[in-house]
Design goal:
- The chain has 3 helices and 2 strands, in the order ααββα.
- By secondary structure, the protein is mainly alpha-helical.
- A two-stranded antiparallel ribbon has the order 1-2.
- The chain is globular, with a radius of gyration of 11 Å.
- The N and C termini lie far apart (23 Å).
- 10% of the residues are buried.
Length: 71
């Protein structure tokens, strides 16, 4: 819905997020928390709703690893 791999929709492209956090210490943990609990203002005015009830921890780890594979 909100994200795509290589173009911006309502939310940023996964590839843009990966590049922004490439080499940043604690990036994986930070992104996991943002997805779980939601965020506002990280990429403009858009709000990302919390996803903690929609994905398992295993799915979340896999998703964040995928996002961080973009450098």
């Amino acid at each position: 819905g909100c994200h795509a791999i290589d173009f911006e929709g309502y939310g940023p492209a996964f590839s843009d997020v990966g590049r922004k956090y490439a080499g940043v210490a604690g990036a994986k943990e930070s992104l996991i928390e943002k997805v779980k609990n939601g965020t506002k203002g990280a990429w403009g005015d858009a709000e990302m709703p919390a996803q903690k009830n929609n994905v398992t921890d295993e799915q979340l780890n896999t998703l964040v690893d995928f996002i961080l594979s973009f450098k």
